[in-house]
UniProtKB/TrEMBL annotation:
Residues 531-737 form the Peptidase M13 C-terminal domain. Keywords: Hydrolase, Metal-binding, Metalloprotease, Protease, Signal, Zinc. One of its GO terms (molecular function) is metal ion binding. Residues 1-23 form the signal peptide. This is Neprilysin-2. Residues 82-470 form the Peptidase M13 N-terminal domain. It holds the Pfam family Peptidase_M13_N. Belongs to the peptidase M13 family. One of its GO terms (cellular component) is plasma membrane. One of its GO terms (biological process) is proteolysis. It comes from the Eukaryota. Its cofactor is Zn(2+).
Length: 738
């Protein structure tokens, strides 16, 4: 398919005039002109046999189009053959940008988030009005508490030491005065719960939806959260990040008043204990089969199976007092072998070592809210993990704390002030078009039997959509009702954070006895976020207001850009319902095997192709192979999402009309601009440490492979850019699940 003309010389002057009027003179335009008569390496400008003339009216010269074109041109490297490396072609100049010292990476998401932070600052840094509802007052008060470094320097660390002492004492601080007779790990968990700390340092405790009956809530017990990723801890003391973690532990203890020699000895022992917990934990690769993680037991069975832990006492002390355990309470044990092995480890580990581990975890959780000497040491550790060498501006940190901790209130103020309602309508229209393409794919794939196909269609058509924000978020009375019981005084930043933790934990755990509401506004009421979500339990997709802007969406630019950007994201989230994990749940969000055996086998074969493809990518910056197993769900979603978005855009053009081109990018037709816009969303550059950490622990592939992987699997991409078979972007062997 040939879709682009070569007659761009006549309008280069227009493009230059328009773009330079906005302070940007794209040096790329002479290169593009030269490409018309240049060597074969400039095949990003497909040639027609009989070029047709373009008029000025074929180019969109509105402010929105000029702005969009300028942003793209700043990132692109048009000297690269798009059939060889489309990511470098679209993002080459972006990758050359200097990463700010306070960041570990620079991505499209982080750029939008910076803009979002500026907007949120005007909200939380505003004066409190006398008649303002309490939730809004709390959001502003928390920001001010965070900004008050004088009070933080004066009281914070001494208050933490008081808390640690009241929770049994941190042995490394108490030295010989520590009383092991008065301490046990269960009581420490109860103390953590009461004072606003995590209860997950030995056993992860949560209240979640029953995977096999999504109309009710259950208690979930899982392997412990860890202070450093399991993938590193299992490598032992010689690994550089484990060494950095250990050094951080010792230095923080010393800042709290510990003797260094004692800290080095005792915290090495507690780190060995934490490494033992890591070694009995299930690796991420083995946590993708939800059925294997679903092990229900009555509390009686739980007690008879794991006898060394008084389960009724333990669970009752973690749940709020108004949520008593039932005699026949059912608990889901996610990793039975972890609980079994934990009992053994606890039985032969001295209490002092256990306590040093637990109280270290509690102390470490407070460091972000303490004085600069603590935070400076935290930064040194962050440098080892992520490469950043500076803290972000204090106001940015405080905006993040306020918006994440009191998200409903801040989100409500955000949409009232900044969100453009027409974006919600446009995004909904795009979503419906993309959903329709998913239906067509499910109706036509040739490897599904009829029954499984119908089940898949039922699931796709039952998927609910949440765009921008729920209407209830604008109801002050609902916000006041939600935040009832929360107290944030003007006395202490640390106390405010601990109160918020207690409030959030109480809210989550009280849900055990409440009916499940899969469309509840509270769950979808945090719009000031640059992200998108799929929930297998709800069978729902969510696109908060924060992502409906910038690179991802604008009503003032051609549809090919929006379908390529936010459309890609929408298709990605829809496909999550049918990735290797989402496919395990039915239309009602229940863990049910609705696949015919032969069809399931074919699906797994197709997923294996994706696993193999991505598992054989090597990131040249850090010389590391991707983890094809851990990233398969996201990769399946990327591949399905881009296909749906492209087809939806083509369908939109059929129903409407071809769109004008962008100034400075007239050499690229709308179909090609769709792909450019899609790739543009994943432009990114990482520090080595952050990239290595991402490849080791994350479920998302680095941005480069979120472009090269899906697009090289698309015949339509190869056709639009005339990529020869066998080129990097048009390999003979392609993978496709959906």
């Amino acid at each position: 398919m040939v879709c682009c003309t070569t007659s761009v010389c006549a309008i280069l002057v227009i493009a230059l005039a328009v773009t330079s009027g906005h302070g940007y003179r794209p040096e790329v335009l002479p290169t593009m002109a030269a490409a018309l008569d240049g060597p074969d390496r400039y095949k990003m400008v497909p040639l027609e046999r009989e070029p047709k003339k373009q008029s000025q009216q074929d180019v969109c010269l509105t402010e929105g189009c000029v702005h969009a074109a300028s942003n793209l041109l700043k990132k692109m490297d048009l000297s690269v053959d798009p059939c060889d490396d489309f990511y470098q072609f679209v993002c080459g100049k972006f990758r050359q940008q200097k990463i700010p010292d306070e960041k570990s990476s620079l991505t499209t998401f982080s750029v939008i988030n910076d803009e979002l932070q500026d907007q949120l600052r005007t909200i939380v840094d505003a004066p409190v009005e006398e008649t303002e509802p309490r939730p809004f007052v709390y959001a502003k008060r928390l920001f001010r508490l965070c900004m008050n470094k004088t009070d933080i320097e004066r009281v914070s660390s001494s208050r933490v030491k008081e808390l640690l002492k009241s929770m049994g004492g941190w042995p490394v601080l108490e030295a010989e005065a520590w009383d092991d007779g008065a301490w046990n790990w269960k009581k420490s968990v109860y103390d953590f719960r009461k004072n606003g700390f995590s209860v997950d340092y030995f056993i992860d405790f949560s209240v979640g939806t029953d995977l096999k009956n999504s109309t009710r809530k259950v208690i979930d017990l899982d392997q412990a959260s860890l202070g450093l990723s399991r993938e590193y801890l299992i490598k032992g003391m010689d690994h550089k990040l484990v060494k950095a973690y250990y050094s951080y532990m010792v230095d923080i203890a010393v800042l709290f008043g510990a003797d260094r020699d004692r800290a080095e000895k005792e915290l090495q022992e507690s780190l060995q204990f934490e490494m033992a917990l890591a070694n009995i934990s299930l690796p991420v690769e083995e946590r993708r089969n939800a059925t294997k993680l679903y092990n229900p037991m009555s509390i009686t069975q739980l007690q008879s199976t794991y006898q060394t832990i008084p389960w009724r006492e333990y669970l009752s002390n973690i749940l709020p007092p108004e949520v008593p355990l039932k005699p026949d309470e059912v608990v889901i044990i996610t990793v039975p072998t972890y609980i079994q092995e934990l009992q053994k480890i606890l039985s032969h580990t001295p209490k002092r070592i256990q306590a040093n581990y637990a109280l270290w975890r509690a102390a470490a959780s407070t460091v972000s809210y303490l004085s600069d000497e603590f935070r400076d040491r935290q930064l040194k550790y962050a440098t080892a993990v992520s490469g950043r060498t500076e803290r972000e501006a204090r106001w940015k940190e405080c905006v993040d704390v306020s918006s994440s901790s009191i998200g409903l209130a801040v989100g409500s103020l955000y949409v009232r002030r900044f969100f453009k309602e027409d974006a919600k309508k446009s995004a909904l229209e795009i979503t419906e078009g993309i959903r329709n393409e998913m239906y067509k794919i499910l109706e036509t794939v040739d490897w599904m039997d009829d029954t499984t196909r119908q089940n898949a269609l039922d699931k796709a058509k039952s998927m609910t959509t949440h765009i921008a924000y729920p209407d209830e978020l604008l109801d002050n009375n609902k916000l006041i009702e939600f935040y009832q019981g929360l107290e944030i005084t003007e006395d202490s930043y640390l106390e405010a954070i601990l109160n918020l933790t207690k409030f959030g934990t109480d809210f989550g755990f009280k849900r055990l006895r409440k009916p499940v509401n899969k469309t509840e506004w509270i769950t979808h009421g945090r719009p000031a976020v640059v992200n998108a979500y799929y929930s297998s339990i709800e069978n729902s997709i969510q696109f908060p207001a924060g992502i409906l802007q910038g690179t991802f969406f604008s009503k003032d630019r051609p549809r090919y850009m929006n379908y390529g950007a936010i459309g890609f994201v929408i298709g990605h989230e829809i496909t999550h319902g049918f990735d290797d994990q989402g496919r395990q749940f039915d239309k009602n969000g229940n863990l049910v095997d609705w696949w015919a055996p032969e069809t399931k086998s074919k699906y797994l074969d197709k997923a294996s192709c994706i696993i193999y493809q991505y598992g054989n990518y090597t990131d040249s910056q850090v010389n590391m192979k991707l983890n094809g197993i851990n990233t398969q769900g996201e990769n399946i979603a990327d591949n399905g999402g881009i296909k749906q978005a492209y087809r939806a855009y083509k369908e939109w053009v059929k129903q409407n009309a071809p769109e004008p081109r962008l100034p400075g990018l007239q050499a690229f037709c709308p179909s090609q601009m769709f792909w450019i816009s899609a790739a543009n969303t994943w432009c990114s550059t990482y520090r080595d440490q952050a990239l290595s950490n991402r490849i080791t622990t994350a479920v998302h592939s680095p941005g480069e492979f979120r472009v090269v992987g899906p697009l090289s699997n698309m015949e339509e991409f190869a056709e639009d850019f005339k990529c020869p078979v066998g080129s990097k972007m048009n390999p003979k062997q392609k993978c496709a699940v959906w």
